[in-house]
Every structure is written in C-alpha cells, then in structure tokens.
Amino acid sequence: MALHRIHLSGGADAVPGARAAVDLLTVEVFDDLSCEDIRLMVSELVGNSVRHGGALGGNEDIELTVLISQSMLRVECSDPAAGFDVPRAAAGYGLAIIETLSRSWGVRYGPLGSTWFEYALAG
Description:
Heat Shock Protein 90
C-alpha cells in the first residue's frame, strides 16, 4: 500500500498539475483506459476545488491524497471550503462522471472539506 500527499496551488494551473502528478503514480499500475478515467476524475475533483471550493488563486492550497492498494486507488481532494451538499440536479457533469467511472465517491465535511473517489484495480 502506498500513500501520497500532493500539495497544489489553486488557480488555473491546479488541474494540469494534479493530472501530471497522479499520472506519475498510476501509469505503471493501471492500463491506458483506466489512466484516462483516473485523469478525468482527478480533473473534475480539482476543477471543482478551484471553481467552488475557494481555491481560485495561487495563494489557496489544494491537497490530493492518493492511496494505492492491491485492490483499489483512492483519491481525495481537499480545499479551503468545508465540504458541500451534493446537488439534486447537477449544474455540470463532473459529479455524474465521477459517479459513473468510480467504484464509490463521496464528500467529507469539516475545516478542510474534501471530495473523494475510489477506483477498482482490474483483475
């Protein structure tokens, strides 16, 4: 089992930075299609942190916690907001994409709110 913490500055560079960092951790573990799914879900998590989680600029922090075990990958994205209520009707497609592609996902509330997903290892 491997646990990684990735610290990102908010703003426009957060999403590509998050994708690149997670790629380094997953490219040897997952096939190409799974890596594309993971990149898309990471983009949605971090993009939501920038747009809705208070990480609009480079002075705000986003933290990704990436856990890779023998059976799954878990990515948790924390930002300055304290979590959110899942909307009944999506304003965008991000959470629907994560729900479709992941094994499970959710929201953690508190001083450093987060959204997370788990992705099963093929096998």
